[in-house]
Specification:
CATH architecture: 2-Layer Sandwich
CATH superfamily: Glutamine synthetase/guanido kinase, catalytic domain
Distance between the termini: 37 Å
CATH topology: Creatine Kinase, Chain A, domain 2
Helix content: 25-40%
Length: 237
């Protein structure tokens, strides 16, 4: 699949105005962080290790029965193309640094992206329009199950899935929704709400994740919950 397909489309799947509460919730995202045994985390690995991780992840998906993935190395993409992927929320700004040996595998409908060699070796990201936590989770989980059968995940019986940042260790999962809240922002009531919801275990971040701003009236609420046992079949939020 050509990279041109992703560059030509101005609107990606999660931008569609459907799904529960789509008048307020712009998108739902599930992200699973995974690492491979026998390799150092990306913050400390070598170019050789990065290349091996990249090769293993790409081969597992490109050689699978599930076709339709496009594979792109960040170092081979022009800066403008990398920026397009960031603005469509298909990759993180962190991944686009060409010195990080990063790559991404994208599904044809752009609902699923697997980032390789970002903060963790593998980050499975599923984005749906509107409020669809259960559907997005089931999609991401099915890909995770497949990869776990193909790749040697770093897993500990006590701590769960091992991740580069200790706050992600456990299930390695984060669930988030991006919300359009113009009235709360204009009246500055959002400044009172953010501290309150933080006490409920939620984190408010900018549109492009940790360290980014929330431009204009778009506020991204990232709901963070970590469980050691991810083999649940009911949504726990």
């Amino acid at each position: 699949m050509s990279i041109d397909k992703f560059m030509r489309g101005a609107v990606t799947g999660w931008m569609a105005s459907h799904g529960e509460h789509s008048d307020i919730v712009m998108s739902t995202r599930i992200r699973l962080a995974r690492n491979l045994r026998g390799f150092r985390f990306p913050i400390a690995f070598t170019a050789e290790e990065a290349g091996k991780v990249d090769g293993l992840a790409a081969a597992a998906l490109l050689n699978s029965d599930e076709k339709g993935y496009a594979y792109m190395k960040m170092s081979e993409l022009p800066m403008l193309d990398r920026q397009v992927l960031v603005e469509k929320h298909l990759v993180s700004p962190h991944l686009t640094d060409p010195k990080r040996y990063g790559a991404v595998l994208l599904s044809e409908d752009e609902t699923l992206s697997i980032m390789v060699n970002e903060e963790d070796h593998i980050r499975i990201q599923c984005i749906y329009p509107g409020f669809q936590l259960e559907n997005a989770y089931e999609h991401a989980d099915s890909v995770d199950d497949y990869l776990e059968n193909e790749l040697p995940y770093a897993y500990d019986e006590e701590f769960g899935y091992l991740t580069s940042c200790p706050s992600n260790t456990g299930t390695g999962m984060r669930a988030s929704v991006m919300m359009h809240l113009p009235a709360l922002t204009i009246t500055k009531q959002i400044d009172r709400i953010i501290p309150a919801i933080t006490r409920l275990g939620m984190v408010v971040r900018g549109s492009y994740g940790e360290g980014s701003e929330a431009p204009g009236i778009f506020i991204k609420y990232q709901i963070r919950r970590l469980w050691v046992n991810r083999r649940r079949r009911s949504w726990p939020i």
